[in-house]
């Protein structure tokens, strides 16, 4: 029995403090479980790639699952496949998570919310760009962007495959942040047959080129 | 009973109105004399006892004046009037007094009302309820009725007479009767003045219609009894007359005018006549309904047939002349015998029939007339089509198409013969442009829309034509040719023109320049050639140069010409620098041993020039050192870099059969001077490269130019062929001792050093692209800095608009620039909508 149970006179803030402490301790214990793996060799206050893999295994999700991104987003992670002690502790405490089971449930719940909440999806989407590119780079390279689009969107948008193909054929190297941001808007707003694409609107030139490309292809098919 | 005062007042004004028609010079009766004196003495309503008694003497209150007593006399008077018998003053006064006495003295009797009442059922009920007019202290109802019946009878008589007549005869009869009757009505109105004043006035005030003042009663009777019957036939007569006139016959126009006037006078405004004594102010409604409508209908039919018939037998150009004539005739007709207000609908009918309904003919023939240069007919089309709404729009488009085609045809011809001749190009453009500028100002009165069409077309064919097509659809070919044309004008040559003509020519250039889309390309070529003129001292006239600059400035603004201006200044300043340097040398006792002229050019204002690395001959390099030292004492910290590629000099030779002088580029000089020392006057390339400390690719073109001028010989290069860049280092070049020239002064600078030309053209193109990118970005930032937040489309159109004086930017380029600026954090997209940009401060 904890010592304060015997002293009912103790004020409530103490109770809360103690509760907090116990949460913090539990969260930190979880951190310890994955941090400082010898294979990662990153030091004691970080969970490295191997630790993350182990964590994912415990959570029962694959490494290309969207939930991985959601986790990084919820913990405000800065670097891929790494969590610092602060990120982990603050993030989990804020979520009120003390166990792997809790965490699994939270991730599943968040994913369900994302399906419906467009603005939340947008924040996750924008987070992905900063998170996904190397820390000191301004732009994300195209292949990385393609991987993240697949993770984020799965089969949500019919045009995604055509878009990916287009980028590869045109040998696009990098995706600028403006293009990244507007790709989501584009997929959200524009029909698969491009009928409501407005040539006068402020789409980035790359997307305009894409639309032209698709239209030309359609014409070619129509002519054949 | 009215009081005496009222009577007096009425009496006075009654007399007054009578005087309008009959002039009393003597007083026929005693009371009349009194009356006149009364009227003179009575400027106001003030009454004296004496006047009252006078009035009463004239109208003894107790005298019973029965209608039956006076009517026979009145009726015979009316008979006299309508019978065209003269009424003496005395007789007139008797009649007048009869009416007066009847109206004043007979006490109101119920019999009056019973006579008038049966006229209408409505009247009966009202009368029986109110007793015929509460104000019926005045007698007159029966008199009115009798008069009305009399007038009806008389007018019916006239009507019977009219029924016998036809056509013009009828019109003539109608006019005659109308003029008589109108006058009689006025006379009767005078005689019955007291009826007007008393009984009628009250009835009207009580809104007992239809009761009219006597004169109006006459007119109404005329209208309702006679005209309603004869209307159709009179109109037919009038319309026939007008038709005859339109057919070219002479008719009695006064007849029609009189008929029209009758229709105007008969437009009795029922409401107005109730309140106002005068019917002068007539209402045109009657005229419009009865006359104008029919007239316009007839006009439309007549001209519809005429237009079709005429067009079948005559060419279109004659048709237009016909219309012009017809429109004038109708305006004149309207002025002469119709109402002014008819002009507008009449013109409209004519325009609809003649122009609107045939508009496709105008549009069809406009093109051919342009082809045939029938300027007068074109002016006519413009005048006529301008009368109808939207009539000119098609023509403007047609003109634009035509001019574009003419311009393109002209340039097609030139492209076949001399696609690279600036003079021909300009001549072709100017011929077409001047021709149509003249046409627009002469035939189309400089109308704004036609000028716009001219501008659009000019812009079309100047920027896109066979010559630009040959140049690979390059938009820079046009500006280049025009800049070259300027160079030809402004460059010193044997056929330079006088100042006045120069001014005119420059004005022409500007007229064409205005239409050039890529003004920045022109600027680049112009700057380049201008710099060559300045460096070579080749300008025909400084005045003309600065004239041209100021014209360009006027059109495109200060920024456009600032570099040109600075280049001009640099050239002027260099003359001073040269002079001062010479003085300085004299002071310091430095003997240069050659004439030396220097130009110091600001790096940022002048176009880039090819660099040439080469060891200069000793004499020259010494002078250069002297100048460097001198210049550094004058301007501390300025870096001088020497542009040998543009420097020239003069050499004199003693080695040939004659003593020749050579104008040569410094590089040519350097090579030639090597031969002063060369054993056997032979050198191979390797030796030259070593001695001049230069690269092969810079040396080969120089040697090539000397070879071409027959100063050098080489066994490895066949005569008449170009030297190749890959020529062996060991190739030996010998100075030809047998060199001969007809001229004593040989100009070697005219031989272009070939390799330079191609490179420059490519560099120029890149330069323009890069310049444009910077200009677009600067423009976007400038706009966003002031607007802070702006929608995508607005930004794009603003940029296009602002840059239109320099070039026409590609929208894609603008968009790419916007994205680039976002990437570099000058701009960002608004959080709430993707179509709006915000400036990042």
Automatic annotation (TrEMBL), chain A:
GO molecular function: cullin family protein binding; ubiquitin conjugating enzyme binding; ubiquitin-like protein binding
Any one GO BP annotation for this protein: positive regulation of protein neddylation
Pfam families: Cullin_binding
DCUN1 domain residues: 22-215
PROSITE patterns: DCUN1
Domain of life (superkingdom): Eukaryota
Any one GO cellular component localisation term in the record: plasma membrane
Function: Neddylation of cullins play an essential role in the regulation of SCF-type complexes activity.
PANTHER family for the chain: DCN1-LIKE PROTEIN, RP42 RELATED
Record's protein name: Defective in cullin neddylation protein
Gene source species: Mesorhabditis belari
Automatic annotation (TrEMBL), chain B:
Species of origin: Mesorhabditis belari
GO molecular function terms listed in the Swiss-Prot or TrEMBL record: ubiquitin protein ligase binding
Cullin family profile domain segment(s): 477-707
UniProt-recorded name of the protein: Cullin family profile domain-containing protein
Ubl conjugation is among the record's keywords: yes
Pathway: Protein modification; protein ubiquitination
Alphabetical UniProt keywords: Isopeptide bond, Ubl conjugation, Ubl conjugation pathway
SMART domains: CULLIN, Cullin_Nedd8
Gene Ontology annotations of biological process type: negative regulation of apoptotic process; negative regulation of intracellular signal transduction; regulation of cell cycle process; ubiquitin-dependent protein catabolic process
InterPro entries: Cullin (IPR045093), Cullin-like_AB (IPR059120), Cullin_homology (IPR016158), Cullin_homology_sf (IPR036317), Cullin_N (IPR001373), Cullin_neddylation_domain (IPR019559), Cullin_repeat-like_dom_sf (IPR016159), WH-like_DNA-bd_sf (IPR036388)
GO cellular component, one term: SCF ubiquitin ligase complex
Organism domain of life: Eukaryota
Transmembrane portions of the chain: none
Membership in a protein family: Belongs to the cullin family.
């Amino acid at each position: 029995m904890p010592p304060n149970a015997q002293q009912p006179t103790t004020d409530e803030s103490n109770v809360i403090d103690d509760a907090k402490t116990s949460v913090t301790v539990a969260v930190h214990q979880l951190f310890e479980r994955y941090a400082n793996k010898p294979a990662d060799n990153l030091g004691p206050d970080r969970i490295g790639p191997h630790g993350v893999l182990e964590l994912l295994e415990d959570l029962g999700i694959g490494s290309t699952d969207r939930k991985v991104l959601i986790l990084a987003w919820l913990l405000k992670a800065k670097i891929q496949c790494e969590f610092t002690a602060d990120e982990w502790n603050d993030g989990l405490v804020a979520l009120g998570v003390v166990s792997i089971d809790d965490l699994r449930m939270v991730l599943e719940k968040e994913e369900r919310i994302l399906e419906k909440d467009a603005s939340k999806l947008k924040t996750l989407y924008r987070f992905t760009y900063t998170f996904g590119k190397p820390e000191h780079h301004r732009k994300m390279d195209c292949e990385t962007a393609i991987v993240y689009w697949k993770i984020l969107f799965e089969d949500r948008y019919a045009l995604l495959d055509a878009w990916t193909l287009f980028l590869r054929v045109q040998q696009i190297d990098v995706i600028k942040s403006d293009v990244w941001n507007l790709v989501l808007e584009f997929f959200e707003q524009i029909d698969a047959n491009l009928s409501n694409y407005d040539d006068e609107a402020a789409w980035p030139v790359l997307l305009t080129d894409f639309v032209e490309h698709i239209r030309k292809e359609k014409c070619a098919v129509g002519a054949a | 009973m009215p009081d005496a005062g009222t009577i007096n007042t009425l009496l006075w004004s009654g007399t007054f109105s009578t005087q309008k028609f009959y002039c009393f010079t003597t007083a026929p009766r005693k009371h009349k004399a009194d009356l006149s004196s009364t009227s003179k003495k009575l400027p106001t309503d003030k009454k004296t006892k004496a006047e009252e008694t006078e009035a009463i003497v004239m109208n003894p209150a107790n005298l019973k004046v029965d209608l039956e007593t006076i009517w026979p006399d009145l009726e015979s008077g009316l008979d006299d009037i309508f019978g065209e018998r003269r009424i003496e003053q005395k007789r007139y006064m008797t009649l007048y007094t009869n009416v007066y006495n009847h109206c004043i003295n007979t006490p109101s009797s119920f019999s009056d009302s019973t006579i008038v009442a049966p006229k209408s059922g409505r009247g009966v009920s009202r009368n029986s309820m109110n007793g015929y007019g509460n104000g019926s202290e005045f007698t007159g109802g029966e008199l009115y009725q009798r008069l009305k019946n009399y007038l009806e009878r008389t007018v019916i008589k006239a009507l019977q007479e009219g029924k016998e007549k036809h056509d013009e005869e009828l019109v003539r009869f109608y006019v005659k009767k109308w003029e008589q009757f109108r006058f009689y009505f006025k006379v009767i109105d005078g005689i019955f003045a007291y009826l007007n004043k008393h009984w009628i006035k009250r009835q009207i005030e009580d809104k007992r219609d239809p009761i009219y003042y006597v004169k109006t009663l006459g007119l109404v009777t005329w209208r309702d009894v006679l005209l309603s019957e004869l209307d159709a036939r009179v109109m037919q007569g009038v319309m026939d007359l007008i038709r005859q006139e339109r057919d070219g016959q002479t008719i009695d126009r006064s007849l029609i005018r009189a008929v029209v006037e009758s229709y105007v006078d008969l437009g009795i405004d029922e409401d107005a006549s109730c309140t106002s004594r005068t019917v002068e102010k007539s209402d045109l409604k009657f005229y419009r309904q009865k006359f104008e409508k029919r007239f316009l209908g007839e006009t439309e039919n007549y001209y519809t047939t005429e237009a079709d018939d005429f067009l079948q037998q005559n060419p279109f150009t004659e048709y237009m002349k016909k219309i012009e004539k017809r429109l004038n005739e109708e305006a004149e007709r309207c002025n002469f015998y119709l109402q002014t207000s008819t002009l507008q609908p009449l013109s409209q009918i004519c325009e609809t029939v003649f122009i609107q309904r045939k508009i496709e003919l105008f549009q069809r023939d406009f093109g051919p007339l342009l082809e045939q240069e029938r300027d007068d007919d074109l002016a006519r089309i413009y005048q006529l089509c301008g009368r109808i709404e939207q009539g000119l729009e098609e023509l403007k488009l047609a003109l634009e198409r035509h001019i574009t085609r003419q311009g393109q045809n002209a340039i097609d011809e030139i492209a076949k013969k001399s696609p690279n001749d600036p003079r021909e190009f300009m001549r072709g453009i100017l011929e077409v442009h001047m021709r149509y500028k003249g046409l627009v100002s002469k035939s189309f009165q400089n109308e704004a829309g036609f000028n716009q069409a001219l501008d659009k077309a000019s812009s079309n064919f100047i920027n896109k034509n066979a010559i630009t097509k040959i140049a690979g659809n390059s938009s820079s070919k046009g500006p280049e040719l025009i800049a070259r044309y300027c160079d030809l004008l402004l460059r010193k040559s044997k056929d330079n023109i006088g100042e006045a003509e120069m001014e005119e020519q420059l004005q022409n250039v500007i007229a064409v320049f205005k239409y050039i889309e890529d003004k920045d390309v022109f600027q680049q070529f112009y700057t380049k050639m201008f710099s060559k003129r300045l460096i070579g001292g080749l300008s025909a006239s400084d005045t003309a140069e600065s004239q041209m600059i100021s014209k360009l400035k006027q059109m495109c603004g200060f920024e456009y010409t600032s570099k040109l201006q600075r280049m001009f200044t640099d050239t002027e300043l260099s003359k001073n620098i040269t002079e001062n340097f010479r003085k300085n040398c004299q002071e310091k006792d430095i003997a240069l041993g050659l004439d030396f002229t220097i130009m110091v050019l600001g790096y940022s204002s002048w176009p880039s020039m090819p660099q040439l690395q080469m060891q200069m001959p000793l004499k020259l390099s010494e002078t250069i050192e002297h100048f460097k030292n001198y210049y550094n004492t004058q301007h501390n910290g300025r870096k001088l870099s020497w542009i040998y590629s543009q420097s020239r000099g003069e050499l004199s030779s003693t080695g040939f059969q004659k003593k020749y002088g050579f104008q040569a580029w410094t590089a040519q000089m350097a090579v030639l001077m090597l031969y002063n020392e060369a054993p056997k006057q032979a050198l191979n390339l390797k030796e030259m490269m070593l001695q001049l400390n230069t690269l092969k690719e810079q040396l080969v073109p120089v040697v090539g130019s000397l070879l071409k001028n027959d100063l050098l010989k080489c066994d490895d290069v066949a005569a008449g062929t170009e030297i190749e860049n890959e020529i062996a280092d060991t190739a030996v070049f010998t100075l030809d001792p047998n060199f001969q020239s007809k001229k004593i002064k040989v100009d070697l600078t005219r031989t272009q050093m070939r390799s330079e030309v191609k490179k420059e053209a490519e560099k120029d193109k890149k330069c323009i692209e890069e310049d444009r990118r910077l200009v677009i970005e600067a423009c976007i930032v400038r706009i966003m800095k002031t607007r802070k937040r702006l929608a995508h489309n607005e930004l794009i159109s603003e940029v296009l608009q602002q840059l239109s004086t320099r070039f026409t930017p590609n929208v894609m380029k603008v968009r790419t620039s916007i994205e680039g600026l976002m990437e570099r954090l000058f701009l960002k997209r608004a959080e709430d909508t993707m179509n709006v940009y915000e400036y990042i401060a």
